[in-house]
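Blackboard transcription, Thursday session:
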Amino acid sequence: MTINVATTPYHEAEADWLIVTIDSSRNFDGPLGELDRTLGGVLTRLSESGDLTGKLAELLPLPDASGIAAQRLLVVGLGKADELTRPRFEKAAMAAVRSVSSKADVSVAVAVPQVSGGDISAEQIIETLAISLTVGGVGQDSLKAERGHHPLASATLLVDDGATSATEAAVTHGVILGEAINLTRDLVNLPPQQIHPESVAERAQQVAADLGLSCTVLNRKKLEAEKMGSLLAVAQGSDRPPRVVFVEYRGAGDDTPTLAIVGKGVTFDSGGLSLKPSDGMLTMKSDMAGSATALGAIAAIARLKLPVNVTAYLGLVENMVSGSSYKLGDILTARNGVTIEVQNTDAEGRLVLADVLHYAVERGADRIIDLATLTGACVVALGEDVTGAFSNDQDWCNQVLAAASTAGEYVWQLPTFDFYAELLKSDVADCRNIGGRWGGAITAAKFLEKFVDKKPWVHLDIAGPSFASSNKPHREGGATGCMVRTLVEVASSLK
Ligand code: BES
Ligand code: ZN
Ligand code: ZN
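(Written on the board underneath:)
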């Protein structure tokens, strides 16, 4: 889809849909008033009758809008202007795009609102629109005969004062972010019989080749040579061999620090011998969302040519049940020599990340962010829409939290006091892989901390927000692509 910028008056914009926004003050001054007059005052009448309120993400379609060049009109509410934030604007924009994308080959013209008083800049409005236009037309139903959503054919952003270079940059930035989010969503949404360690590795190679990035794939033999005993134990019950992939982007000189983005890539988590019940297993194709996010983020960072050095590490295994599955009571030796007593084979993500984090450190990571659908406990603590953050370095964590706030994503830090680590003690090994009944998201993070060698590290538990259980007007169910934007923003902030 192409997105153009034009100064065409709203009523002259030719498209299948003209999309205009209105805040709850319903002020018909300026270009919206001109549109209303062209339409014979219908907007004013709808406002007076209470059909048009301007509430956040309220959609009022006029499928037969005569008198304007566009075939149809969609009015979208923004809520109170002084309460407008990036996530609130995105909710309205996504609801609008999703509602017009139910047919194929749709063209839209979007009136870019001039908002003041809220907490969102003009560039952020444009970028958010570009993301929504790119993401909102892609559903999770690519294998259905009749799709619910179709990518838009074209979009024109209607602005007052012509396309400045800042406007153009915000559009390009938004499209790149939207496409990266869609890459992550696509990988996560594909059914688990198509997605396994080898197929994810192939996809990573393809993405890297398209962007001219180096991509290295470690097979089982190499992983054995690298002594990744913890990761290999999780993989041993599956017919699908494990892979560790790293994709490298060098946008800055060799003296510039490297950011490692490490993703959990359990392509299916049955729980292993600590088997999950069906309800819990149903969405476990999404247990590789961390690695899909790492891949999406590095793709965007490379396309944006950010002046930073980033390596994305994908730890890819399938956690399955068979005669060769790892067992409760097994004692594993991780790459860094730490011995781990397995007390639950469903706490497998941390075993995979243990070795990949240590590998990233040894390969020269200066700062680390890992992403993992790690614990149900994090979803209990923060709900389905908020990512949990855990860190060993408050300055680094603050930088990640600030980036999330700028990107308009919800991240909340949980504590990592030393005493939580005591819950991981084992009588027979250096540690065990579960912490006990309470504070499960934190004990999981304390487990990971043993493998980062005191490098500045932030662990993001995306078990809740990476996969949505149902469709909503403003977002498709299934994979969300959360944290791609935050990671790109972190990389931007490293410049
Ligand atoms: N992949 C799951 C965590 C998860 C739960 C992700 C719900 C997305 C939604 C992880 O491997 C897991 O099973 N964790 C266990 C840990 C427990 C055994 C200590 C959990 O959360 O129950
Ligand atoms: Zn598990
Ligand atoms: Zn898992």
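Lecturer's comment: The chain has two domains: 2-163, 183-493.
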